[in-house]
Write the structure tokens for this entry.
Amino acid sequence: MVIGFIFFFFIISGYSVLIFQNILIEKNSIINLQNNQIAELQKKIIDKENIFEEQRFMLAEANLELLEKHEQYEEQKFMLAEASINLLEKNELLEDQKMKLAEANIMLLEKNEIIQIEREKSEKLLLNILPIRVASDLKERGVTVPEKFENVTVYFSDIVGFTKMSSVLDPKYLIEELNEIFTAMDNIIELNHCERIKTIGDAYLCVCGMPEKNKYHAENVIRSAMQIIKYIDNRNKNFQTQWRLRIGIHTGTVVGGVVGIKKYIYDVFGDTINLASRMESNSEPMKINISEVTYQLVKDKFKFIQREPIEVKGVGQMQMYFVDAQ
């Protein structure tokens, strides 16, 4: 029985050892499995660490590239700033040049305005000296050709006793008086389409029918003479100095042209001018003395007083008429 018990004990012990071994094997298997799992986990960790390192490397490269691009960007910003500064400097230079150009244009405009004003003054002065058509010829062609004009009526007048009056009157006052009287006469003849040729001292010479033709030449001149007489008569009523005119008028052929090249003077020539002067010298104070030729042209337009024939030096006897200005 003891043997049986011992045998049973050995059997139980063997079986226990076998069970323990199996348990140990199972635990080892579990440990191995866990070790394998740990190994796999470590491998995954290593793989992730490798991926992470690779990503870190890529990130470092990206950061480096970003830094390089940032440096390029900063360099471009610097170059852009330099370009902006250059552009600003050029704009300032351009504005300065524009300002100078504007100033130059203003000066040019002012000079052109001055030139235009002086040109207008010169043209106005030229028109005061020369008839419009003659002045236009000189401006356009630089020359004017003397012309012969038919059917021209000439007005000639002087102031009675002027030599004596000029010796006693103040020169400044005398010139002022003549200027006022002649200006009024200019206005009168202009209204009647006549052309003042010149004044010599107290003598006043004007024409109608040249250089522009006018079929009313004789009528226009006589009407001007009558208005001038009326003006002087009215003026004498308001001024202490009394002026009296003597007027002569004749009609005929006249030659007109510019005399001189430095100081232009438009002058008239011919027997008609001389005879108008004879009409004036044979007139009387505040009278208008006309020739037979002029009379025949306007005898139906105005009233006249026939005079006795008068001997004219170099011509002989001439029939003359006073214009009845009443």
About this structure: The helical segments are 2-129, 132-141, 162-168, 171-191, 217-236, 271-281, 292-298. The mean pLDDT is 87. Strands lie at 147-159, 195-200, 203-208, 245-259, 265-269, 287-291, 304-306, 310-312, 316-318, 320-323.
